[in-house]
Amino acid sequence: MEELIASFVTGFTAFTATNLDDLVILTLFFSQVNSTFHRRHIVIGQYLGFTLLVIVSIPGFFGGLILPDRWIGLLGLAPIAIGLNQWMNKQNDDFEEENNNSEESQSSLVLHYFLC
Prior knowledge:
Strand content: under 5%
Number of strands: 0
Radius of gyration: 24 Å
């Protein structure tokens, strides 16, 4: 029973902590209400967005039931691999752009760098 209560407390705390920024954004939206942007637009958008997040998270929940725990832990490496791949490809793209630029455009970049 203690584990159940601890789970509820943890869930409530996590939900509250992650929605503090949402409260700020909603406050800003409600302060912008006018004749074309109504309160119902904000409320409907909030419910649709939250429902969409729940629907999108359902496959992850069921995937967690299917995959072994060791494999789920390795899924954290996926964003790192994606980021490293983008970083490495960006350097290659920058190198190709440098080779394609003319001397005139390179000198203008140098001037822009020193003047700004």
